[in-house]
Design a protein that fits this description.
alpha/beta, oxidoreductase, single chain, Sc_DH/Rdtase_CS, SDR_fam, globular, NAD(P)-bd_dom_sf
């Protein structure tokens, strides 16, 4: 018996990092997966299928409004609908505020926040009863940081969008829960590539590690475990919560 037997879980940005690991863990717990990314995440899908799991891999740019319903249609055709949506796709952004153009600002909001609105709205309209929306925010949706104002604004928006949606769903009698996850720095391509662009990457990585009381970055599995919990019925009384998984980053 898996913890997610019978559930259909749709994960955006599933080709890499946290989305990929979450997809693999959810499949290992018995869920069937709809995995999407800018290009269909066929490698992740093959890993799931090779292990005997049910999976559908599709291309989905989360900023394209009309694509959400198309993917939901395909999920319905393949699996009869979906029970969990993990709004994971996102862009990192490091740019001094004074050098940020309005176009750059809007791009970050579009990928990181507008997409979460589109996905959460779709869940209200089409998710099966008893479902769970899991929105991947960040510690940088809880505390500020120099050089990442657009990113922080988008992730702070995800936090309060999630809480508002949780209250509205409950009051409307929709049996859908909505929660956000706030990872500390996790070793994924998003972080590693950004650090490698800096003049002294080793020192930057050591500094980032030192910001976490535990003294190191997290691993994708640390977030995937939280996704599994929020996707499962073990979290049936959890809605509107901000689940901080950050090695203590925001505790001091
Ligand atoms: N890694 C961290 O330290 C960290 C910390 C806090 C929050 N997060 C958040 O976790 C999520 C996953 O990040 P990650 O670290 O795994 O990054 P990643 O870069 O490894 O993966 C992100 C994925 O999102 C996809 N993506 C980007 N734009 C897209 C779009 N418009 N439509 C569809 N897919 C798109 C990318 O192709 C990529 O596969 C992001 O929302 C990120 O902001 C990451």
């Amino acid at each position: 018996m898996g913890r997610l037997d019978g559930k259909v879980i749709w994960i955006t940005g599933a080709a890499s990092g946290l989305g990929r690991e979450s997809a693999l863990r959810c499949a290992a717990e018995g869920a069937r997966l709809v995995v999407t990314d800018l290009a269909a995440p066929d490698t992740v899908a093959a890993e799931i299928a090779d292990a005997g799991g049910g999976v559908l891999a599709l291309a989905q740019d989360v900023t394209v409004e009309g694509r959400w319903d198309e993917v939901a249609d395909e999920a319905e055709e393949a699996f009869g609908g979906f029970d969990v949506l993990v709004n994971n796709a996102g862009l990192g952004e490091n740019r001094p505020l004074a050098e940020t153009t309005l176009t750059q600002w809007r791009r970050v909001q579009s990928v990181n926040l507008d997409s979460v609105f589109l996905g959460t709205r779709l869940a209200f309209r089409r998710m099966r009863p008893g479902g769970s929306v899991i929105n991947i925010s960040s510690i940088l949706g809880l505390v500020g940081n120099a050089g990442t104002a657009a990113y922080c604004a988008s992730k702070g928006g995800v936090r309060l969008l999630s809480k508002s949606a949780a209250v509205e769903a409950a009051q409307a009698g929709l049996t859908i829960r909505v929660n956000s996850i706030h990872p500390g720095y996790i070793e994924t391509p998003m972080v590693v590539n950004a650090v490698n662009k800096r003049p002294e990457p080793d020192q930057v990585m050591a500094y980032i590690a030192s910001r976490h009381p535990v003294g190191h970055l997290g691993e994708p599995a640390d977030i995937a475990h939280a996704v599994v919990y929020l996707a499962s019925d073990e979290s049936r009384f959890v809605t509107g919560a901000e689940m901080v998984v950050d090695g203590g980053y925001t505790a001091w």
